[in-house]
Automatic annotation (TrEMBL):
Protein name: IS3 family transposase
Coiled-coil ranges per UniProt: none
Domain (Integrase catalytic) ranges: 14-66
């Protein structure tokens, strides 16, 4: 772990929130908190977890990795 304030501390989270801001937050004008929550949930669960491949996961989506994990777990 690096020192507090080092930009490498939380690279994965920082990358995720940058993507969320650039691809979602700046494009919408939310009227209610519920509208914002629903849109952000959809973006994360559908767009980010099921469609976007990730370098850290061997260019697979988080959903694909999760499915492989449960298939392996149930086979054992």
């Amino acid at each position: 772990m690096s020192r507090k304030g080092n930009c490498w501390d939380n690279f994965v989270a920082e990358s995720f929130f940058k993507t969320l801001k650039v691809e979602l937050m700046y494009d919408y004008d939310f009227k209610t908190i519920e509208q914002a929550k629903t849109t952000i949930f959809d973006c994360i669960e559908i767009g980010y977890n099921r469609k976007r491949s990730h370098y850290f996961l061997g260019y697979k989506t988080p959903y694909e990795v999760e499915q492989e994990f449960y298939q392996f777990k149930n086979a054992a």
